[in-house]
């Protein structure tokens, strides 16, 4: 049952991102893990695509322990903006550590640098996990500005954006509307 | 990006874009900012990028010893030891020059400062440099005893730089969190351009910023950018997220 639900989420995201430049996914906290599993599954299956995964909710170390293989794929680069702020000094070759989740401009630079020099027609994706976690450290207005800049830059570089919102953590109505497509995952079924 | 012929490209793509391709050839630019804002790194990147294009450069330091300067540079991808060894980038300690001239390295008279200026000009001519950096004009002026001497020296420096056929960056130190371009408030008047490097406090973290205040002869941006210094890419710029700036100003 759990696998079927994750497969369902994966297919839904894959279908949405194919026709939309940006997809916002609103998820309840207790389904966040399932959503991440579906996204990691997507990233691993599509080895011909390039991904940058920005984590502000779980440390990269946690992700490597949870999604083992998924974090070792060569087509995925990670940006971890919470480990350094938490005093965790581990390093990994496929992860860029930004010292603070408040340094939003640096985060954007690192995201864009990951795609620099790549062919324009290559399928490129950014996953932001999550906007609600970034809002723990930043004011809502600046996160809105951050997302607008990410969207504008990614549109000009032909990069797709998947952003996650954990609904218990914030009032997401304004932020999620910045996306071209919104997927709302419910507690017990897929909306 | 196509480079205009009459400009001196800094080699920092985003910065050149903000200045319609680069600094107008032969200009004197004041690079102003507090300690740690990235002045020296920006100037060094400007010199090394120029040297790669065949433009010889000289860096006059009066604040840091040579070994310390080069050691700090070694971590950057733009640094190339061969460019120093081949004489394309020259780093000269002004204190050593002063000593060789028999000057008191801590206090200059007007004559001392004049002699030093002549030497700087001779070195620049002899090396046929296209790019010159003085780091910092504040430290140099600090060795002059009175405000009148400083003003006199700065105007002489301006006259000397105007006749040299090179593009110059003068670094200027200002206290943190101030919107002031120089210590003596004269330096900006001999400059054709001002690059203001600042810090912005965001929830206790300091974000480096850069703003082109003035650049004569260019249609330049006056927007404030966030500045990042990375070992791989040196200076990088990206639009500053402004939502918290007003809040920061209110706190001051």
Task: Walk me through what this model shows.
The longest helix of chain A has 18 residues, at 2-19. Chain A is globular and about 35 Å long. In chain A, helix 1 (2-19) packs across helix 2 and helix 4 (104-115) packs parallel to helix 6. Chain A has 7 helices and 7 strands; from the N terminus they run H-E-H-E-H-E-E-H-E-H-H-E-H-E. Chain A has helices at residues 2-19, 32-45, 60-67, 104-115, 131-137, 140-156, 173-176; strands at 22-27, 50-55, 76-80, 95-97, 124-129, 160-166, 181-184. In chain A, strand 2, helix 3 (60-67) and strand 3 form a beta-alpha-beta unit. Chain A is an alpha/beta fold. In chain A, 42% of the residues lie in helices and 19% in strands. The model of chain A has no long low-confidence stretch (mean pLDDT 87). Chain A has a 7-stranded parallel β-sheet with strand order 4-3-2-5-6-1-7, sandwiched between helices. With 252 residues, chain B is α/β, with parallel strands linked by helices. Chain B contains 9 helices and 11 strands. In chain B, strands 5-4-6-7-3-8-9-10-11 form a 9-stranded mixed β-sheet. A two-stranded antiparallel ribbon of chain B has the order 1-2. In chain B, 42% of the residues are buried. The A-B interface holds A 99-100, 102-106, 108-109, 113, 137-139, 141-142, 144-146, 149 and B 202-205, 207, 226, 228, 233, 236, 238-244, 247.
């Amino acid at each position: 049952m759990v696998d079927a639900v994750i497969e369902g989420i994966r297919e839904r995201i894959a279908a949405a991102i194919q026709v939309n430049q940006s997809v916002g996914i609103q998820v309840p906290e207790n389904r966040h893990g399932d959503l991440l599993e579906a996204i990691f599954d997507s990233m691993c299956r599509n080895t011909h695509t390039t991904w940058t995964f920005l984590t502000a909710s779980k440390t990269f170390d946690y992700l490597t322990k949870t999604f083992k293989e998924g974090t070792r794929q060569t087509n995925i680069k990670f940006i971890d903006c919470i480990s350094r702020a938490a005093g965790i000094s581990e390093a990994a070759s496929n992860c860029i550590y930004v010292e603070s989740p408040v340094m939003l401009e640096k985060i954007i630079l690192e995201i864009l640098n990951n795609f620099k020099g790549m062919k324009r027609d290559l399928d490129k994706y950014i996953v932001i996990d999550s906007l609600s976690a970034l809002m723990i450290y930043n004011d809502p207005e600046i996160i809105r500005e951050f997302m607008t800049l990410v969207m504008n830059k990614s549109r000009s570089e032909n990069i797709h954006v998947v952003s996650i919102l954990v609904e218990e953590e914030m009032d997401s109505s304004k932020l999620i509307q910045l996306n071209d497509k919104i997927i709302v995952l419910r507690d017990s079924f897929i909306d | 990006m196509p480079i205009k012929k009459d400009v001196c490209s800094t080699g920092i793509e985003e910065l050149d874009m903000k200045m319609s391709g680069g600094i107008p050839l032969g200009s004197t630019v004041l690079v102003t900012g507090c300690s740690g804002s990235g002045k020296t790194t920006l100037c060094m990147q400007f010199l090394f990028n120029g040297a790669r294009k065949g433009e010889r450069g000289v860096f006059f330091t009066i604040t840091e010893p040579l070994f310390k300067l080069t050691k700090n540079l070694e971590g950057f991808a733009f640094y190339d030891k061969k460019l120093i060894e081949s004489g394309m980038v020259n780093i000269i300690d002004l204190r050593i020059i002063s000593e060789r001239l028999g000057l008191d390295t801590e206090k200059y008279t007007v004559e001392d400062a004049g002699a030093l200026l002549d030497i700087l000009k001779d070195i620049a001519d002899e090396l046929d440099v296209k790019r010159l950096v003085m780091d910092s004009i504040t430290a140099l002026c600090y060795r002059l005893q009175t405000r009148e001497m400083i003003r006199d020296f700065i105007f002489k420096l301006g006259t000397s730089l105007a006749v040299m056929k090179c593009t110059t960056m003068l670094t200027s130190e200002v206290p943190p969190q101030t919107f002031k371009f120089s210590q003596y408030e004269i330096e900006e008047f001999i400059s054709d351009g001002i690059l203001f490097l600042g810090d912005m406090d965001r929830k206790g973290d300091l974000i480096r910023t850069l703003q082109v205040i003035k650049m004569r002869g260019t249609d330049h941006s006056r927007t404030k950018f966030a500045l990042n210094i990375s070992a791989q890419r040196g200076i990088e710029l990206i639009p500053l997220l402004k939502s918290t700036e007003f809040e920061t100003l209110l706190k001051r």
